[in-house]
Specification:
By secondary structure, this protein is an alpha+beta fold. The protein has 3 domains: about 1-85, Uridine Diphospho-n-acetylenolpyruvylglucosamine Reductase, domain 2 (2-Layer Sandwich), CATH 3.30.43; about 90-200, Uridine Diphospho-n-acetylenolpyruvylglucosamine Reductase, domain 3 (2-Layer Sandwich); about 215-300, UDP-N-acetylenolpyruvoylglucosamine reductase, C-terminal domain (Uridine Diphospho-n-acetylenolpyruvylglucosamine Reductase, domain 1, Alpha-Beta Complex). The chain has helices spanning about 1-10, 45-60, 105-115, 130-135, 180, 200-215, 235-240, 270-290; strands spanning about 20-25, 35-40, 60-65, 70-75, 80-85, 90-95, 95-100, 120, 140, 145, 150-155, 160-165, 185-190, 195, 220-225, 250, 250-255, 260-265, 295-300. The strands form 6 sheets. It has a 5-stranded antiparallel beta sheet with strand order 6-7-13-11-12. Strands 1-2-5-3 form a 4-stranded mixed beta sheet, covered by helices on one side. The longest helix is centred in the last third of the chain and has 19 residues, at about 270-290.
Length: about 325
């Protein structure tokens, strides 16, 4: 089966952009996760379209990942094709608009805005994900979020067609866009910003960077903020008040520096991470009656799941 798929893929995409049995842990911020059957890195939009259409026609499951900053991949890895858009990282400025490809870092996009003396993306200067990932989850921080400045996105839809969607068509809300359900693949995004003062923009970004670096456990691999903010509460405060900081399962630990983070302190497995997440959810629910909803995505298969090409559902 793998040989057949590989032979078809090399007709679509250059051989050097196809890896077999690639370790996903090399592509996630947590530094964990099993192997992908195929790890594909297209170099142009047509290749992305062709890979998607091939998967649809041949019923080969495919999974899109960004830079793995908000992702846990189970230890059994991912069946089928993992599609990475890391080669799409171009950022261009035109007047007060910035267009960034989906593989570009949202941090780099905010810095490009600074260089162009454009305001509106300062909040994103510490978000570690890609532009595509930021759109997918309507990423936000320090009072700002993607929906505040997004104008439109160019996507490949679930049928493999390339179309433009306006921001208002994405149903953007707290850590949500309808891309999470409709199967769109973001190729690029256009942000509408405003002219501003370079020194003032930089001062805000410097302050936010300092606040992030001083409070977040950046010295360890992690998936960033694990849980969404429950209405009326702060997830980190609930976890802290549950005396869970420092709690470990295997090599995964609730950060002693910021309770909203789970860090990989000693060669953690995905199973360690997921077990600790469930323990935190159970403890907070029992103590405060609050259900913590995950912000981090969990995909892939467990080690004991041998079903080839099973759909990679959460």
């Amino acid at each position: 089966m793998k040989t057949t798929i590989y032979n078809q893929l090399v007709k679509i995409i250059n051989e050097e952009n196809i890896a077999i049995d690639e370790h996903i842990k090399n592509h996630t911020y947590t530094k964990l996760g099993g192997k992908a059957d195929f790890f594909v890195t297209p170099t142009n939009y047509e290749e992305v379209q062709n890979v998607v259409k091939f998967c649809l026609t041949e019923k080969v499951p495919f999974t899109l990942i960004g830079n793995g900053s908000n992702l846990i991949v189970r230890d059994g890895g991912i069946r089928g094709i993992v599609l990475s858009l890391k080669n799409f990282n171009k950022i261009t400025v035109s007047g007060t608009r910035i267009t960034a490809q989906s593989g570009a870092a949202i941090i780099d996009t905010s810095r490009k805005a600074l260089d162009a003396k454009l305001t509106g993306l300062e909040f994103a200067c510490g978000i570690p994900g890609t532009v595509g990932g930021a759109i997918y989850m309507n990423a936000g921080a320090y009072g700002g979020e993607i929906k505040d400045c997004l104008e439109s996105v160019l996507v490949i839809d679930k049928n493999g067609e390339m179309i433009t969607r306006k921001a208002q068509d994405l149903d953007l809300s707290y850590r949500y866009s309808n891309i999470q359900e409709n199967g769109d693949i973001v190729l690029e995004a256009t942000f509408q910003l405003q002219h501003g003062n370079y020194d003032e923009i930089k001062a805000v970004m410097d302050d936010l960077t300092y606040r992030r670096e001083s409070k977040q456990p950046l010295e360890y691999p992690s998936c960033g903020s694990v849980f969404k903010r429950p209405p009326g509460y702060f997830a980190g405060k609930l976890i802290q008040d549950s005396n869970l900081q420092g709690t470990r399962i295997g090599g995964a630990e609730v950060s002693k520096k910021h309770a909203g983070f789970i860090v990989n302190v000693d060669n953690a497995t995905a199973s360690d991470y997921i077990s600790l997440i469930r323990h935190v959810q159970k403890t907070v629910k029992e103590k405060f009656g609050v259900s913590l909803e995950r912000e981090v995505r969990i995909i892939g298969e467990d080690l004991n799941d041998k079903n080839e090409f099973k759909q990679n559902k959460e």
